[in-house]
């Protein structure tokens, strides 16, 4: 990440067409406070974010891992194998690009719960660490930049995976006319969760247009120029233009520089201000319910936003190639940056476990509400007693087309 403030960039951004996948501003049904507690308790939220625990995701990721190195491959393989265990669809987007040190290999990792879904909400972060040519700087592990975010993404996938399965069963039942009347709406049910671990975010030398965000530039370009076969449900939303993988992203949520105590995050883009407010609301309700310990965490993680606020600047980061192609972006980055930014101090000691744990729970709630998931206390979990259904039966929504 680079603190590059691009004044006036909103002008060019504002004239871009909105992505076809956008369902627009809306209110997600809020979980009850007991459901919030169930979600927080589903799995210990700090478990995978404690680097001192050798079995935590963070421990596996928190090593020097500049692009195109052996350690980087180890981390990539760890991300892939963790998500394969969940049976998510994995795509490894490998390519070679020219860097100030010559050609280098890069690989973005993309994991999707349901690759056939018409739309996806994307949670993303970069998994490479910044390259430094000599000792001791070459031991830089980028704890906030962005190892902690990557570990959290894995934990979110593991936590929400069974809830996404349960949602699929609810949808199936509703289509057979067996569900509750006030159940999940059709559009929400068509959005899946996708994780993107970007490679090569960091500049090898100095941040420039060609020495930075290698993975994000490659992926956004590839996805803008790949055409998808017509999807029966996608037609409901966009009849106008052929769809590309890019146009099926409803929102791209990018995490960066997360994990240090007392973070402050602002809203950057007018079209996702409402989504930012949804994130703030999750935090507010978790604090009010006593699930997050306000005394320990201090003030809100978010700058308050007033209706008229328009930010005239934004940060150079992996979202830009997507933003410039019309994708709706929520950039969750702390401002100011952690004081250890791009120094050896950005190691395990820069992280605050209660803060990380709070981020994890806030994001669980945000995605659960976005995706219409229903956490259940562990006592109620287990295989549902669903009536056998006939797969040959025509799906209700297909009939309606
Ligand atoms: C690879 O990671 C290990 C920690 O697992 C570290 O000790 C080593 O220095 C790293 N290698 C390089 C080349 O950075
Ligand atoms: C990329 O990796 C392959 C092996 O996977 C290697 O043969 C090739 O030399 C690498 N390319 C660059 C530019 O490092
Ligand atoms: Zn960085």
UniProtKB/TrEMBL annotation:
Residues 108-363 form the Peptidase M28 domain. Its EC number is 3.4.-.-. It holds the Pfam family Peptidase_M28. One of its GO terms (molecular function) is glutaminyl-peptide cyclotransferase activity. It is an enzyme of class 3 (hydrolase). Residues 375-401 are annotated as: Disordered. GO terms for biological process: proteolysis. Belongs to the peptidase M28 family. It comes from the Eukaryota. Gene3D superfamilies: Zn peptidases. InterPro entries: M28_QC (IPR037457), Peptidase_M28 (IPR007484), QC/QCL (IPR040234). Keywords: Acyltransferase, Hydrolase, Metal-binding, Protease, Signal, Transferase, Zinc. This is Peptide hydrolase. It comes from Russula ochroleuca. The keyword Transferase applies. CDD domains: M28_QC_like. Residues 1-21 form the signal peptide. The keyword Nucleotidyltransferase does not apply.
């Amino acid at each position: 990440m680079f603190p590059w403030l691009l004044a006036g960039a909103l002008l060019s951004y504002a004239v871009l067409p909105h992505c076809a996948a956008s369902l627009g501003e809306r209110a997600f049904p809020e979980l009850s406070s007991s459901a919030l507690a169930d979600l927080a308790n589903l799995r210990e939220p700090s478990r995978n974010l404690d680097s001192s625990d050798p079995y935590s995701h963070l421990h596996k990721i928190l090593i020097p891992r500049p692009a195109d190195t052996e350690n980087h491959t180890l981390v990539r393989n760890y991300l892939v194998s963790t998500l394969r265990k969940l049976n998510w669809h994995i795509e490894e987007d490998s390519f070679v690009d020219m860097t100030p040190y010559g050609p280098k290999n890069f690989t973005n990792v993309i994991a999707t719960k349901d690759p056939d879904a018409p739309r996806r909400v994307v949670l993303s972060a970069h998994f490479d660490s910044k390259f430094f040519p000599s000792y001791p700087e070459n031991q830089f592990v980028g704890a906030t930049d962005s190892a902690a975010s990557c570990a959290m993404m894995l934990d979110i996938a593991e936590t929400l995976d069974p809830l996404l399965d349960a949602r699929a069963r609810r949808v199936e039942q509703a289509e057979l006319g067996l569900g509750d009347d006030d159940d999940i709406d059709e559009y929400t049910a068509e959005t899946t969760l996708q994780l993107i671990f970007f490679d090569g975010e960091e500049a090898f030398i100095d941040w420039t247009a060609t020495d930075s965000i290698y993975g994000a530039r490659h992926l956004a370009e590839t996805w803008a120029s790949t055409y998808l076969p017509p999807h029966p449900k996608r037609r409901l939303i966009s009849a106008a233009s052929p769809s590309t993988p890019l146009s099926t992203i409803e929102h791209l949520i990018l995490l960066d520089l997360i994990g240090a105590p007392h973070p402050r995050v602002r809203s950057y883009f007018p079209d996702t201000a409402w989504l930012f407010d949804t994130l703030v609301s999750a935090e507010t309700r978790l604090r009010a319910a006593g699930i997050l310990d306000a005394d320990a965490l201090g003030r809100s993680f978010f700058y308050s936003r007033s209706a008229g606020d328009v930010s005239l600047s934004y940060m150079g980061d992996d979202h830009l190639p997507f933003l410039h192609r019309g994708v709706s972006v929520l950039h969750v980055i702390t401002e100011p940056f952690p004081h250890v930014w791009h120094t050896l101090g950005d190691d395990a000691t820069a992280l605050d476990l209660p803060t990380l744990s709070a981020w994890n729970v806030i994001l669980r709630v945000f995605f659960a509400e976005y995706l219409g998931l229903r956490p259940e206390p562990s006592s109620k979990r287990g295989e549902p007693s669903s009536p056998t259904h006939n797969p040959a039966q025509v799906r209700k929504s297909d009939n309606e087309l």
